[in-house]
Amino acid sequence: MTSSPPPPDPDKHPVEPSGDQQLSARERNELDELRHRVSTLESAGPAGAARHHWLRSTGSVLLILLASLLSLLAVVAVWANSIVRDTDRYVATVGPLASNPDVQKAITNRVTTEVLAQIDVEALVKQLEQAASEKGAPPRAAQLLGDLKGPITSGLKSLVSGTVERVVSSSAFDTVWVNANRKVHSALDKALTGESGGAVSVKNGQVAIDVGPIVDQVKDQLVSAGFKPAARIPNVHTDFVVFASKDVGKIKTYLKLLEIIGTWLPIIAVLIAALGVYLAVHRRRALIGVGLGVFVAMLVLGVALTLMRSVYLDHLPVGASEAAAGAVFDALVKFLRSGVRAVGALALATALGAFLIGPSRVAVLTRTGCQKGIGALRDVAVSAGLPLGAVGRFVHRFKRWIGGVILAVAAIVLFAWNYPTMGVVLWTGVIVLIAFAIREFLDTGTPATPSTPAPSTPRTSV
């Protein structure tokens, strides 16, 4: 018989370290994670799980679509709720209208017409004729005064219009306008509830603010300018229409409901979106779907606002100023459009972030490039004497937790902000990126320890 060769003597032939032993600690962790993922995928039975996955995917898609629709309604609800309940928000909405040229022109025309309606031009001409007769003027001169009715009316209109324009374009009018709107900030609420009274009237589908105080100021200035007949102008109430629509009754029902649920609807939409992502088989893809779904919903809402503006202007009452009505509509939906842009930007940023953490070639190249760039900067700083020992090891150990805290703080900031704009969203995103870059810079990793062969034990012969 031939005897098998004796095992190699570790003293004479040291055992070479295996491939795993030559890896650094970070590489070994990554290898273990990859082995765990492969084992999980191999252990899953594709035949038995196919139906289960289909149900989860279907449920996830339905929840994401519902969350996208609710996000659209949530933006409208928050806007309606802020317009009705927040006086400062309402004043900030309609306050700039006082300095809008189109609105000023419309108010000037409205007040001028009202003042001229209170002045009897024919009576003024007759008074001139009587005065001329009493002074002994020839009959021909009295007849000529009668023929001056047209020029007198035109001159009077120019005088009144110029006076009204000076009043409306003055800083005093801005104060009157803001104070009046602050007192009657519930104008839209009255339109939606059908109430009326005070300086706000709601009738025939119109929300109108009484600008009678402007008439009083014009009256005083005309008298001061020497036009004594203006003193006989009575106290009148004339309305400037802020909003007009035949469908106020329908809008009333919808927005009143949105006002009630305005506080909770955004939270409900976020929870449903989170449930859709949790239920999905591929959660990262589901998160991308949520971001894109909400972005599309905001795009649809923005287009709808543009179409609504055209429809509103096409159905204005006869004689209404289209330019002024357009300015009023733009003012009323200004913060709604701002909310649409903010939510759309946040949704797009979420989808982009979920894409960049994925396995696609573009995402991997982007991450690798950023890591190499930040790593090179870190190496230069360490070489220059920047101590990152304990801090670097801490950041490396709790790297995922630190990332979660950064995202959580950003989410809290956006939710706690009363009315975040697109600028707030963009700056928050920039700060988040800077925080992640700092995290990567501080992550020095665990230094690789050289692998040494196991100490040999002396062999004893029996």
Automatic annotation (TrEMBL):
The UniProt record lists the keyword Membrane: yes
Superkingdom, taxonomy of origin: Bacteria
Region: Disordered, residue numbers: 1-25
Keywords, comma-separated and alphabetical: Membrane, Transmembrane, Transmembrane helix
Keyword Membrane: yes
Residue ranges crossing the lipid bilayer per the database entry: 61-80, 261-281, 288-308, 339-357, 401-419, 425-442
Annotated signal peptide: none
Official protein name in the record: Integral membrane protein
Organism name: Streptomyces lutosisoli
